[in-house]
Automatic annotation (TrEMBL):
Organism: Sphingosinicella soli
Keywords, comma-separated and alphabetical: Cell outer membrane, Ion transport, Iron, Iron transport, Membrane, Receptor, Signal, TonB box, Transmembrane, Transmembrane beta strand, Transport
Membrane topology: Multi-pass membrane protein
Any Pfam family hit: Plug
Protein name (record): Outer membrane receptor protein involved in Fe transport
Organismal lineage: Bacteria, Pseudomonadati, Pseudomonadota, Alphaproteobacteria, Sphingomonadales
Length: 773
């Protein structure tokens, strides 16, 4: 049986049982009837190693949540479930601007450490202060997989810490089906939210050709008000040296808008499945997503008690992406062939109020209004070809392939101040246009040999070459005049090896160990930093000029893990120990006073940690479970020319993460099944910046340094609860997220002329109904 046929058989057998492909090791669990048979682990299928495998058989740490679980959790995107996934964390709450990290491999730099994939299509973009990871909205997803540890063999250099895989639902050529859903939610201190969606699976030629299509619209109500008031600027003191009192000024804003950070999302999907015969699978697909947030979710710091800002201008974020693909599979007897051709096109328009930032750089301009527009555009063509062993029971399993991609990233930015010509000689304070062209070539392979029925060994390797060319144009007084860089190039070749071994004491108890190398290419810096304008910041780092480029970084990661099920599957217990040796870490270094940044190599680090997750079906539909992760990620050899010190925590890595849940399912009448669920999530504090101090100008024009209040993000915890009822065709769900209305300061920004922070969405109570046919 080929891999595609095996997957279809599994899905249909699960439909017959009335269950979904649930990750038993995952912390959030699907509803299970007390009298129904327990889900056999052989029916839990993931594609973490680009072949269909039982989750409990994969000899690496993988967390997976099914589409049903995502819906039950009311998850909109991956940030809504990451606190339930051991070892996965992030920085920046805004969709489309975030940075993800897995097991302490975290960075705030242009090249991410976690790969983002939709149906094996890479969605990695260059990260800047104006764009970040693309976040697909959970819509018609079959499951989410989180792969931990370097995945460079099968997924490439962008997955040196791990990978997040979105797997969309495939058209079914046999069954006419569909669903419709609508929901409404009320947020404390905010505006209501609502959503509507529809999905249709239509066989056009039974067992040969099918179409699957759907749409989603979601309004996320705002909870930040904008009103006239004051603004605090911690870069200045209202008192003379050495007494430090952060400067507070009238924001000079006349905008009064309630709940101004509302957001609208639209998602459309269309795919076809054509199976001319049992050996062919051809799937063209289109995914389109448009996300618009009217204003950012920042609130001003100071004496305010409410979530309020005082910006002078509206500040929209519009993130549009289209993903077009053709996935072809062919069974050649004992070998399966796969071809994946894809085109990814993303545009992110980012409008911001720079009045306070520019007014901080040039105080006479404080009373002027300064709009900023940044436009990021990514286009990528990719082609992957694979051959793999075709029999799931083969003693020797292997996959080998070739990969090519051509990606263009462009950032255009213009900041202007109407009326500023008499003061700075122009209204355009800064204009920049940076284009990065990158080509990747790779050959990869991975093989597993079963020495005995219980003992497997795995080895893999990826050979790659990455070529980059950067063109930079910058102009304006805040750039120090015209700078032009043409054809700044880099060319890197490398090898990513991996080895592993696994042993099954019983069919449901496995231990495994692996060693893998992760790699991330270096390259040219994408900003030309003026050494005169930024002299004070550079001097603080011991530099006279910012480097033109940064080196590649690499790591070796080692893992010892175990996966276990006991008591006929009623108890699941998985755990792992991991150690990572990371060299020449790439980090973004912010020059706060002049507004520029560059990527540098911040030295070496060691990451040590452990994670455990489990679930117990206690009795009669009652389940408990949870997970905990400990991560010690510390700099071991700080580099000169950075603010990093030995023993500093790596950025954005909480030392402790934990979650726990309890659920109880019970019958309501003859046809309905209800489930009550509560969960608790915790994250400890995490370092946000390496700088221990920030530069300050006192009222007597003296310069000085004060403690950096944005050095750490505080710890926080969240409580969620829900109750649902399901009769097989209709699902009703009532939920409350952030039950205790926790409002931690997550992303504190003290370097842009207006002290601000973000927080979690306040307490939200909602209801959703879903009808299936």
């Amino acid at each position: 049986m080929n891999a595609r046929a095996f997957s279809i058989t599994v899905r249909r057998s699960m439909l017959a049982l009335g269950v979904s492909s649930v990750a038993l090791g995952a912390p959030a669990l699907a509803q299970e009837a007390a009298t129904a048979p327990l889900v056999d682990a052989g029916e839990i299928v993931v594609t973490a190693r680009k072949t269909n495998e039982r989750l409990q058989d994969v000899p690496i740490s993988v967390s997976a949540l099914s589409g049903d679980q995502l819906r039950e959790n009311g998850a909109v995107d991956v940030k809504d479930v990451l606190r339930n996934v051991p070892g996965l964390s992030f920085s920046n709450v805004e969709r489309g601007l975030g940075n993800y990290n897995i097991r302490g491999v975290s960075t705030v730099a242009s090249s991410p450490t976690v790969g983002i994939y939709l149906d094996d299509i890479s969605l990695v973009t260059v990260a800047t202060g104006f764009s970040g990871a693309f976040d697909p909205i959970f819509f018609d997803m079959e499951r989410l997989e989180v792969l931990k540890g370097p995945q460079g063999t099968l997924y490439g250099g962008s997955a040196m810490g791990g990978a997040i895989k979105y797997v969309s639902a495939r058209p079914d050529t046999a069954l006419l089906s569909g669903s419709a859903a609508a929901g409404f939610a009320a947020t404390a201190h905010g505006a209501p939210s609502y959503n509507v969606e529809g999905i249709l699976n239509l066989p056009l030629v039974t067992d040969t050709l099918a179409m699957r299509t759907g749409f989603l619209y979601r309004r996320e109500g705002g909870y930040i008000d904008n009103a006239p008031g004051t603004v605090r600027n911690s870069n200045y003191s209202s008192t003379p040296s050495p007494d430090y009192t952060p400067l507070v000024q009238d924001a000079l804003s006349s905008r009064t808008v309630s709940n101004h950070n509302k957001a609208d999302s639209f998602v459309g999907r269309l795919s076809f499945q054509w199976e001319p015969d049992a050996t062919w699978s051809i799937r063209p697909a289109l995914f389109y997503q448009r996300y618009e947030q009217k204003n950012p979710s920042q609130f001003f710091l100071g004496d305010r008690e409410e979530l309020t800002s005082s910006f002078r201008l509206p500040q929209s974020t519009v993130d549009k992406a289209g993903i077009y693909s053709l996935d072809v599979g062919k069974s050649l007897g004992n070998v399966d062939f796969a071809s994946l051709t894809a085109y990814f096109d993303r545009t992110l328009n980012w409008e911001r109020d720079y009045s306070f930032f520019i007014g901080g750089l040039v105080p006479p301009l404080y009373s002027f209004t300064s709009p900023n527009l940044s436009r990021s555009r990514t286009t990528q063509f990719s082609q992957e070809l694979r051959l793999s062993s075709g029999g799931p029971g083969d003693r020797f399993k292997w996959v080998a392939g070739l990969y090519y991609s051509h990606q263009d990233d462009n950032l255009y930015q213009i900041a202007s101040t109407p009326g500023a010509t008499p003061i700075i000689g122009t209204e355009v304070g800064y204009v920049g246009d940076t284009t990065t062209k990158a080509k990747q070539y790779a050959a990869f392979g991975e093989a597993t040999f079963s020495i005995t029925d219980r003992l497997d060994v795995t080895a893999g390797v990826r050979l790659f070459q990455i070529k980059q060319v950067v063109d930079i144009l910058g102009d304006g007084p805040f750039n120090g005049g015209l700078t032009l860089v043409e054809g700044r190039k880099s060319n890197e070749k490398g090898v990513n090896p991996k080895v592993g071994i696994s042993y099954k004491a019983t069919p449901e108890n496995m231990i495994f160990a692996s060693a893998a190398k992760g790699f991330r290419p270096g390259g040219p810096n994408r900003f030309q930093v003026n050494p005169v304008l930024c002299a004070a910041d550079l001097d603080r780092l011991g530099l006279t000029a910012a480097p033109d480029s940064f080196d590649s970084d690499n790591l070796w990661s080692y893992e010892l893990g175990t996966k276990n099920q006991f008591a006929d599957g009623r108890v699941t217990l998985n755990g792992a120990l991991f150690f990572t040796d990371w060299k020449k870490i790439q980090q973004q270094l912010n020059l706060i006073n002049c507004g520029f940044s560059f990527t540098g190599n911040a030295g070496s680090a060691e990451v040590k940690g452990a994670e455990i997750e489990g679930r117990v079906n206690v009795a009669g539909g009652f389940q408990i479970g949870g997970n905990a992760t400990y991560t010690s990620a510390k700099i071991t050899d700080a580099a000169v020319g950075t603010a990093v010190q030995d023993d500093d925590q790596v950025l954005a890595v909480p030392k402790w993460m934990a979650s726990a849940f309890a659920s109880y399912g019970f019958d309501v009448g003859a046809d309905w099944r209800a489930q009550v669920r509560a969960e608790y999530q915790y994250q400890s504090s995490a370092r946000r910046m390496f700088d221990r101090v920030q530069a300050v100008t006192f009222s007597d024009a003296e310069g000085g340094l004060v403690p950096n209040l944005a050095e750490f993000r505080e710890s926080y915890d969240v409580v969620n609860a829900s109750i649902s009822a399901d009769n097989g065709a209709t699902v009703l769900r009532l939920y409350v997220n952030n039950l205790l209305d926790a409002q931690p300061w997550l992303d504190v920004n003290l370097g842009a002329g207006n002290d601000a922070a973000t927080t979690l969405r306040p307490r939200t109570i909602g209801v959703e109904v879903r009808q299936k046919f």
